[in-house]
């Protein structure tokens, strides 16, 4: 039986194709083994992270328990020591996340190489197939009939032509799918690289917060001389100064008269603002709460919402906006207010204040997006324990003033804080 020139070329092409496939499969198996090894290492890292996070939760429970106990010198030292251990565990967690992310990037790099190799292989295979298809298409039906001795050979030849067209379509579909997978893997790889940059920055930030914790303990020991009586004296002085200032602030804000246009505010609804933390635990709501009624705010209701959270937890912008200003009342002796704070103005008529931060990551005039880290939670300013304070203002009413403009005789004339008429304070929970 005489075989056509096309059949012979088809046989040779098929043999070469399968030989190339064997070589490429060997390389693919080696890459797959390496990827499996990396996946196992990532899984081990994630297990270690879960264990560390459980230990951090134990420390958090201890801190919350201490916060509910009497405010004594010994409890204050215990709080600082437990917070330090918690922060150090957090640093280890961040380091483990950095290792896990680096491994993920290495895995994706191998997968990118494999996908690119598969695409190159398919391109070569498709090119060979298309050449044969074009050759076949150039052969007339009469030439095919004349080149075959019998009907069965002719049928085989025609079937080969159909198979080539089918294989060409299949390979083109595979190529399109591989290209999509390559694009997705590249995007994932870039996301992981961005995450790695963020984690390294977070690691540096948390080390700074640990150092501030150590400095705070040293300062406390120096001021109190390790004596409970000295601690209580300092505590009472702080409380008296805070209450005096709050009375002045209440009078100042009560005298402010600004008409807030309701049309300038968004309609109440969940999701107008995003939550400022990944894990939410509300410890005090807005308004005349039980704690506020105890006289904690000099007769004024609580002007925001408090979230119980460990020191050093990333705090995120609740909406896209511009940082109006940042401040630190602790930088001025005798100032007991928000501590380290950030005020952001949003395009929907709202402004948000984040108080008692341990570290600020933004600056005045900076544009932030929803979910951007603007700082880390802390215990700065006057607090009864670590937490994040969130206030929502009607932008029309809020402004930033010197404390010296509120109280003419004060130790912290140049410290600055946001103030507003009482009607400009809004309940954050109607927007979160």
TrEMBL record:
Keyword Lipid biosynthesis (UniProt): no
Coiled coil: 35-76, 105-255
Ligase in keyword set: no
Record's keyword terms, sorted: Coiled coil, Signal
Molecular function terms, GO-annotated: metalloendopeptidase activity
Signal peptide from the UniProt entry: 1-32
Domain M23ase beta-sheet core: 301-393
Protein name in the entry: M23ase beta-sheet core domain-containing protein
Lineage of producing organism: Bacteria, Candidatus Nomuraibacteriota
